[in-house]
């Protein structure tokens, strides 16, 4: 490996040397040390090479947060290949599109997702324009094997057959691609975002420093590793010699159990996970757990509630295109003396730039002038630096549109406070323009979250015959909140915000549509809002093994050829 350059896989090499006997990964009754994890990753990398994986080949994986997915973050780049982690909540058509677009050579599939993967592969078989299908490898449960297969190859089989002393490819250029991540597609077709080794390495170091992650953290995988490679903490936990506590689901019971059993010190999540934790038994933690949250602006009232349980929250903001977090709300000691409500409001801001960015600014999109640092003037967040994506895979037009004059344009509307901290006011497409007035949906949502019976809220524009468009609120309420009416919510809003910002329509739903990371899919809500009608009303007074194409099945002699390579 060229010593002049930096690569995330070096974190694992170092961990195997200096943290050799420390626990690296825990999953149910199974655990590994850093020495074992390094050997397993080298074994897997050698097996990938024997399966003719070459530099820049894409290796896709569809799996929850299990040890195999963690190991692939090192083993795949060790083989010189590009890791593509696929969102487990996507439908078969979306998965098929990603496999086709990325031209994946190998497709690892967790046993729970074999039916979904089979459906996706069947769609590819029916598409005449599809390149050769990837070789499928099932990831069976490492703790309690199920025997599930899709073909004959299995993950632990590849690890066992690999040679840990095999000479792996020399990594020579830190700008080479390490990962291919497809955007969540909340507003448009997903795009393949290309990460460099350099960007991933620097982002990892930056977050460890700014979040203050010390030696030997116990990290709970409540954030999907498939989302921006776990905000780079897949590599970061190795850098600090920590413990990766892997869980398959983010249920309240599983998270609280893991926190208690393993003495978790750190975790990341989207704000939706806070709601899950609060809807659990609401137990107080025996020791503080540091939480980095992002993915959607968390309302201050929600932050205040979760911190009462013992979770110490740091707010971050980022995008897939920024290799995860781009801003972190660094905490200032002087804020500890402020009232709880004020502390929560400060925490809800997106903060200041991560160390890997050369610059972050909020600019007027037309003039490219920086907005005043007055906490009121809005503009678009723009970023530049080594951690920004190389571009969109096989998509030069969108790459040029997003990367202009050295800046990446995020599409997020924000203000800059006098202390230099940024605060998002909305996505540019989510700003509601009613009668010429700009309304921040985030501001309206923040008020709604303060209502004692509201669990979740999302505000979008709906058509209005007079004002062009007007706010429409979608809310979920607590159990027992069935008696809360639309009029009650509107009256509450009238008492707590400017009149022009008050939603003209409130729709109660059982659950808001979300991506896997907790981002509310507002494009779905906007479509729903178009079908709703505003009922003008006088202002009330304020109130307090599986079906599969046989032509894909690998013949026995083919399996023998494959296995002879291992």
Automatic annotation (TrEMBL):
Asked whether the keyword Ligase is assigned, the reply is yes
Keyword Methyltransferase among UniProt keywords: no
Top-rank lineage group of the source organism: Eukaryota
Q: Which residues are in the AMP-binding enzyme C-terminal domain?
A: 443-519
**GO-annotated biological processes:** phenylpropanoid metabolic process
Task: State the InterPro entries in the record.
Answer: AMP-bd_C, AMP-bd_C_sf, AMP-binding_CS, AMP-dep_synth/lig_dom, ANL_N_sf
Q: EC number(s)? A: 6.2.1.12
- What SUPFAM superfamilies does the annotation carry? Acetyl-CoA synthetase-like
Q: Which Pfam families match?
A: AMP-binding (PF00501), AMP-binding_C (PF13193)
The record ties this protein, via PROSITE patterns, to: AMP_BINDING
Query: What protein am I looking at?
Result: 4-coumarate--CoA ligase
Where is the organism placed in the taxonomic lineage, from the top? Eukaryota, Viridiplantae, Streptophyta, Embryophyta, Tracheophyta
């Amino acid at each position: 490996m060229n010593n002049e350059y930096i690569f995330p896989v070096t974190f694992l090499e170092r961990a195997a040397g200096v943290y050799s006997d420390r626990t690296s990964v825990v999953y149910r009754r199974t655990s590994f040390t850093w020495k074992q994890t390094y050997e397993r990753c080298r074994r897997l990398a050698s097996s990938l090479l024997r399966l003719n994986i070459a530099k820049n080949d894409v290796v896709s994986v569809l799996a929850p947060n299990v040890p195999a997915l963690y190991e692939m973050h090192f083993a795949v780049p060790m083989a010189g290949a590009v890791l593509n982690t696929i969102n487990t909540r996507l439908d078969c058509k979306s998965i098929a599109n990603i496999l086709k677009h990325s031209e994946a050579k190998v497709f690892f599939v967790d046993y729970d997702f074999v039916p979904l993967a089979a459906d996706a592969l069947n769609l590819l078989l029916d598409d005449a324009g599809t390149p050769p299908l990837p070789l499928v490898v099932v990831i069976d449960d490492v703790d309690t094997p199920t025997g599930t297969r899709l073909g004959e190859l299995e993950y632990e089989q590849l690890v066992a057959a690999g040679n840990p002393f095999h000479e792996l490819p020399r990594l020579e250029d830190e700008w080479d691609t390490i990962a291919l991540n497809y955007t969540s597609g909340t507003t448009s077709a997903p795009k393949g975002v290309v990460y460099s080794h350099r960007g991933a390495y620097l982002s990892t170091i930056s977050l460890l420093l700014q979040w203050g992650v010390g030696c030997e953290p116990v990290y709970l995988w409540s954030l999907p590793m498939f989302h921006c490679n776990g905000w780079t903490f897949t590599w970061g936990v190795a850098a600090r010699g920590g413990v990766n506590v892997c869980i398959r689901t983010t249920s309240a019971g599983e998270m609280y159990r893991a926190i208690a059993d393993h003495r978790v010190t750190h975790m990341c999540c989207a704000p939706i996970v806070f709601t899950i934790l609060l809807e659990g038994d609401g137990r107080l933690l025996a020791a503080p757990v540091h939480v980095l949250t992002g993915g959607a602006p968390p309302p201050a009232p929600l932050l205040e509630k979760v911190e009462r349980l013992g979770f110490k929250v740091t707010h971050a903001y980022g995008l897939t295109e920024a290799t995860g977090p781009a801003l972190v709300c660094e905490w200032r000691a002087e804020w500890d003396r402020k009232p709880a409500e004020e502390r929560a409001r400060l925490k809800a801001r997106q903060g200041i730039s991560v160390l890997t960015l050369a610059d972050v600014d909020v600019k007027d999109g037309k003039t490219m002038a920086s907005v005043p640092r007055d906490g009121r003037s809005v503009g678009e967040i723009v970023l530049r630096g080594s951690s920004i994506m190389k571009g969109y895979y096989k998509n030069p037009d969108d790459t040029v549109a997003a990367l202009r004059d050295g800046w990446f344009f995020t599409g997020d509307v924000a203000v800059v406070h006098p202390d230099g901290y940024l605060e998002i006011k909305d996505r540019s497409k989510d700003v509601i323009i009613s009668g010429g007035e700009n309304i921040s949906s985030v501001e309206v949502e923040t008020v709604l979250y303060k209502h004692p019976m509201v669990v979740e809220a999302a505000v979008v524009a709906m058509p209005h015959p007079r004002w062009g468009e007007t706010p429409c609120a979608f809310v979920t309420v607590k159990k027992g909140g069935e008696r809360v009416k639309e009029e009650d919510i509107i009256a509450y809003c009238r008492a707590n915000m400017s009149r022009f910002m008050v939603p003209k329509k409130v729709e109660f739903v059982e659950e808001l549509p979300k991506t896997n990371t907790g981002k509310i899919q507002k494009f779905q809500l906007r479509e729903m809002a178009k079908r709703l009608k505003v009922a003008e009303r006088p202002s009330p007074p304020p109130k307090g093994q599986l079906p599969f194409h046989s032509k894909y099945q690998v013949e026995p002699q083919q399996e023998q050829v494959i296995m002879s390579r291992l």
